[in-house]
Amino acid sequence: MTHSPTTARPTGTATSEAHASEPHASEPHASEATPASSKRRPLALAVATLAVAALLVLSLSTGEYSILSQDDGWQIFLAVRVPRTIALVLSGAAMSMSGLVMQLVTQNRFAEPSTTGTTEWAGLGLLVIMIVWPGAPILVRMTCAIVFAFVGTMVFFALLRRVSLRSSLLVPIMGMMLGAVVSAISTFLALETNTLQSVSVWFQGSFTSVYEGQYEVLWIVTVVVAIVFIMADRLTAVSLGEDIAISLGVNYHRMVLIATGLVAVATGVVTVVVGSLPFLGLIVPNLVSMSMGDNLRTNLPWVCLAGISLVTVTDLLARTIISPFEMPVSVILGVLGAFVFIALVLRQAKKGAVL
Known about the structure:
Structural class: mainly alpha
Distance between the termini: 35 Å
Largest sheet: none
Radius of gyration: 20 Å
Shape: globular
Number of strands: 0
Helix content: over 70%
C-alpha cells in the first residue's frame, strides 16, 4: 500500500515538541566543529578501530575450552569462536545503527527497537513461524521476523499519528506498552503450543548458540549499514521534520518507509540469530551524539564501532562473571540501558526541557 507511510504524521506532529525537548539541532557543541577537531577525527577513528580490534582479539582468546592444548582446538576455534566474534561485530553494528535511524526518523532521543516494540514484534514473527513450520529454514524464519518487525513498527507509528504528543517520554512509553502487549501475546501462544522454552531462550539474548552454520545470515546487515550510509544525507534531512525535508527536495514519506524497512531487516536478522539485545540502540547513539553532533554520515562509523565494543565487552563479562557458566548478554545490556535512560531523562530535566 503506497499510503502506508503513516510514519510521517508522528514525526510531524511531534516536531514542535521534539525541537523543544530533543537537542538534535540546538546544541552548539554538537553541531559545531573547529577545523582542528575535524582534522583529528580520522586519527581518533583509526585509534578507536584499533581498540575495537583488540577487544575482538580478546574475545577470540576467551573461553573455557583450551584451543591450544586440545587436538581439536583449531576446529573449535573456527567453528565456534570465530563465528561468535563475527556475530558480535555484525549484531552490535546493526542494532546501534537501527537505534540511530529510529531516533532520526522519530526525532526522539529515546526511540530504538526495544522502546518502540520492534524487537517484540520480530520475536512474535519468529514464534509464529516456529509454530506453523517447526522445521523452517533459517532464511524463512528470518523473513517472517522481518515482516512482523516492519508491520509492528508501522503500527507503532500509526498509534503515534493519532496521539498529540506533549512529551518526548510518551514515545518510548507507548512503544514499551505496545511491546509488552505483543510480548504477552507471544507468551500466551507459547503456552498454548508448548513452545515457552523457545520463547524464553529468545528473550535471553545470548551468543551461546552462535556457531558455524547458524550465523551467516547476519552478513545481510552489512548491506543495511551500507544503504544507511549512502542515504545518510536524506535521513538527516528527514530528522529535521517533514516541511524542511520536502523543501530540501527529499521525498519524506518514501524515506521514512525505507528507514522503517531497514530497521526491520536489521532487527529481524539479529533476533533470529542472537535474540533480544535491549537498549543497545538507545545507549550508543546518544553517547555518540553528545560528543559528535547529529550528522548521520559523520556519526555512523562511530556508532558502529561503539556498538561493537559495547556488545563485545558485555559478552566478555557474560562469559567470565559466573564462569564456567554464562549470563545472557541481555541482562547486562538491560541494566546499562536502564541507567542511560534515567540519565537522559535527568539530563533533559536539568536543561529545563519539556518532558
